[in-house]
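Table 4 source record.
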Amino acid sequence: MDGVEVWLRGRRTPIDSRRLSAVTQAAVSVCGRFVQVSSPELFAERFHVDEVAVLQPRVSEYNIAPSARVLTVVDSMPDHRVLMQMRWGLVPSWARDASQGARLINARAETIAVKPSFRQSFKKRRCILPVDGFYEWQAIPGRSKKQPMFIRRRDGEPFAFAGLWETWRDGSNSDVSEIVTCAIVTTSANAVMEPVHSRMPVMLAEKCWDHWLDPTNEDTDALNNSLEGDKVNALEMWQVSTLVNNARNDGPLLVERAEPETLF
């Protein structure tokens, strides 16, 4: 694939495939990469947003990895919905430093009501991550490396991933501004996803959005029922290039179908 053009950190760059192995990053978590290629305005319309507070340009859209700034939907108060950016990887308010967020990109639905890292966020600070599609890695018999797969809804609509958010402040440095971070809630895989991974993101049905985002709603039993999610079986997936393994690569090439005999 010498000379194939991909996007490297937001710019078009020719990449020699022989150089990729040195910087390839393995994906080990469920939903460790996803796509947010739709414009903030489109997401705002789809999720009934009242205010768009997206202040910084996004570095990646086709290969969003942990620690990136991602678009989220929150109700800052009842009846006022905001599209804003957060850093992916939740840092609990009590954490000594922000590095803990690197480990907390996902929150298991079965335990978020009791796990110290997530229980307060679950009760008071919930969000939606609008997502155009995501990647998972499938084990292939006879191959040492897993095959990346791209997953999206058949109807082309964005997913509404259930999320939690938190604000962290560095108590040792008053000059450092607060960091707003988030995590994706996951659940057991549905019939479509199970051959690829045992877990999948919680995909909220539209009827649950208001209930999930309401900052005054602390009914954890009802919220847990929302986490049954919309286990959308109307999904489609296909094999994509292993270029997506490297978080530095970006661009529409990453979601194009790749036939087994031509996989990079």
